Amino acid sequence: MVASILASGLAVGAVYALIGVTYNTMFSASRVISFTAGMLGMLGGVFGSLFTLRLGLPLVVGFLLTMACCAAVGVVTEFVAVRPVLKSLDQHLYVLSTLALSIMIQQLTATEWSTEPQRFPRLFDIGAGIFDEKFWLPIVACGVAMGALEILYRHTLVGKAFLAIAEDNFAARALGLPERNLRIASYALAGMIGAIAGFAGGELLLAFVANGSLLNFYGFVAVALGGLGNNRGAVVAGFALGIYQQAANFIVGGIFSSVAVFALFIVLLLAAPQGLFGAPTVRRV
Amino acid sequence: MSGVSEAIPQMSMDGGRERMRNSLVSILPFIAIFAIALVLPFFTNDYWVLIATRTAIYWLLVGALNLVVGFAGQLAIGYVAILTLGAYVTTILSGGNVLPPVPPFVALFIAGVAGSVFGVIVGLPALRLRTFYFAITTFGFATIVTQIALAWQSVTGGGIGLPGPEFPAPFNSRLGFYFFCLACAALCTWMTANVAHSRFGRALIAVRDVEVAAEAVGISKARLLVTVFIFTGAAAAVAGGLFATLQTYITPDAFTFDLSILFFISILIGGRGSILGPMLGTIILTLLPEIAAPLATWSTFLYACLLLAVVLAMPGGIARLLDFKSRKPLDRDRAIVPRASAIVEALQSVQMREPLILDGVVLSFGGVRAVDGVNLEILPGEIHGLIGPNGSGKTTILNIISGYYRPEAGSVRLGGAALEHRSTVVRAGSGIARTFQTPRVVGEATVLQNVLIGGTIRGRANFLETLFSLLRHRQDEERFRAEGLLALRAVGLSDLADVRADRLQHSELRFIEIARALMGRPSILLLDEPAAGLSADEIRRLGQLVKQVSQCGTAVLVVEHHADLIFDICNRVTVLNLGQVLAKGTPAEIRVHKEVVSAYLGG
Prior knowledge:
The complex is a heterodimer.
Chain A: H1 2-30, H2 36-54, H3 59-82, H4 93-112, H5 133-155, H6 157-167, H7 169-174, H8 179-200, H9 202-205, H10 211-226, H11 231-252, H12 254-271
Helix pairs in contact in A: 1-2, 1-5, 1-6, 1-8, 1-10, 1-11, 2-3, 2-4, 2-8, 2-10, 3-4, 3-8, 5-6, 5-8, 6-8, 10-11, 11-12
Chain B: H1 2-43, H2 46-71, H3 80-95, H4 104-123, H5 131-151, H6 153-156, E1 162-163, H7 174-196, H8 199-209, H9 211-216, H10 221-247, E2 249-250, H11 257-270, H12 276-291, H13 299-313, H14 317-321, H15 340-347, E3 356-365, E4 368-378, E5 383-387, H16 394-402, E6 409-414, E7 417-418, E8 432-434, H17 447-453, H18 463-467, H19 471-491, H20 506-519, E9 524-528, H21 536-551, E10 555-559, H22 563-569, E11 572-577, E12 580-585, H23 587-591, H24 594-601
Parallel strand pairs in B: 5-10, 5-11, 8-9, 9-10
Antiparallel strand pairs in B: 1-2, 3-4, 3-6, 6-7, 11-12
Helix pairs in contact in B: 1-7, 2-7, 2-8, 2-10, 2-11, 2-12, 3-4, 3-5, 3-10, 4-10, 8-17, 11-12, 11-13, 15-19, 15-21, 17-19, 17-20, 19-20
């Protein structure tokens, strides 16, 4: 039992972690927490199934197209729901605009795709039992994505520019960084991370429209516990959350496991609103 | 003096007539809507009665939720959770499938009680979490409740569901039930309107838009929000019980998150801080899919489009569209003319007059000693100036006195008693009021409402009395209004009482803040750069105003960069530099003090 808890826990944890990173990537670029993060994960599965199964494209092409589509959705988010409300960030209108956009994405998917879970293709057909690819693939995807992000942020000029606008937007602009383009790029990047999460977790979670709000919630739990804007925190919290949830799943049964996750989330968040790895908030007066 | 007291009764009589007309105009749309609702069954068929019943039930929930979302600004997107709870509690208790059955009205009442408890649980995270965080926790509640309803088959019937409760005659007929729901909706409208036009409603919008200022006038966010959550929870659960009856058969599928979205979006499309707007929003959103049948599958998509459109293009919502009064241009050459007699009248009831003493106060931010052993004594009736270069610790001292920061060492005392640290909301009760460097004024409220926020803790009616508009509530409001107008006359803004505050100039906002502070009947008034952004003329009037306030016995501590104003009005001046007192004395002494001249004033 422990083995299957670990296998499925780490697998869903990896998806939650990647959605957490999606949240963070958008947040770092714009100080906006977007309800579209989970939707991007859901779309990763839906587009993947659409391109490879329904349209019968080769896997690699399907994957690249999925990435491209989710990146486009990310950019649309930036244009429609983020940029117009950035001027009045203190009014938190972004909560409403991104909520509206995420509902639109969800409804559009439900109507045009399906309200029922749809099959996702088997990608490599390697492994069985607890070593089945549907368990290890999300974990590998999470590792690769984190590694790639690390290289991007530490060793490329664009990545360093991302870090600069995340650290201090005004100063970065004063230095002449093209803040707006970097923000658009960040949203495209967030879309691709969400796509990876959905595509790699497709065999586990299927191409299912209801995954959107589910991933929104669990991904945000990972972000909130790991500390907003802290990718490593999100990954640690995501894996911990996945294992905790699957353990609860095996011990008290499916539906009460979400009660268990939710209860823990509320308690931890009330105890440490800045997250377990975050810094306390700044002065207000 | 006599001239003024003659003028006032006449003014209030005119004001009374105008007020009557204004309040008539403002309740007219509600009367019209409910009149249409009342005659609706006689002109249409059963189908439309069903729709109207559903609208009334939704409004029962949305109207109460409006206090949480529209007034308090809390992004509670998951209130379908309480609707679900209310529906199941009413159904299970009246159906008797677990306990012996109880009459439906008793079941509905118990559901209301359960809803108020659950409302507090759902709302509690709002006291610590903000915006997105709170939104997602309410979303979590909505998901959890539906899942429990699905899983707890022995009680809820699981996915198969339960037959809904049936009310006794005459409420079991379609029409009887409709009129019952309509009555509930009307009651809810009346109650929320009472709250909205009370100190509670004003405190809610203060918490929403100017939280820091709300603390300074003594509003306890936690107590206020919990009170409102109790009311909203009860109303939402009762709405749930009625919803279950309307459905005749309930399954967890009936309580989709889309329903929650409808409630939430109705309020935002209607406009924050309005009652009519969200009511129209509820009606429109409920009717929209009915009017155009092909839209039914797309209704949620449509709501989301509307929400996006409102957020991006029309943040004030329907209420702003209907706000014709605020389109009239304001008088361009209006002037702020404070009235000395009104200041005397406003402050005559101030009781405590004790010196405020800071003794060896120390506070650091990180490695910076912002305040480094400051001693300060402010006597009743004096104007004490606090000057110094930027970063010398002036505003920090004000914030320590207001209770936003706790000093690491030293004490702050009022008379003999030490002020409790780290509890801003008790300061107003001790007679300390303040203004802010950047005026913190609720833009969407009128000038008068903003001023009345300052009197919040002096109200006597409790929430229940306000809800039912009992005598003490009406007395409170009558008194508040008179005092608010008096405070506005004192600072010279009485002509603008009913104008929305975001239409005013910066300098006028500064005087609103002073009027709000006067509403608290302060014995100590803290002014943080009151002259910043004012014209020379306005600064002169501000000086006279402050002098008059101090002559009434109130101590005034002014932080200011306008050296001329400080030297003109202050009895004593303290100069700070790098967190320490550089010099103390009368304006004449300070003006020639060598170190002050070299550190701050310049030669």
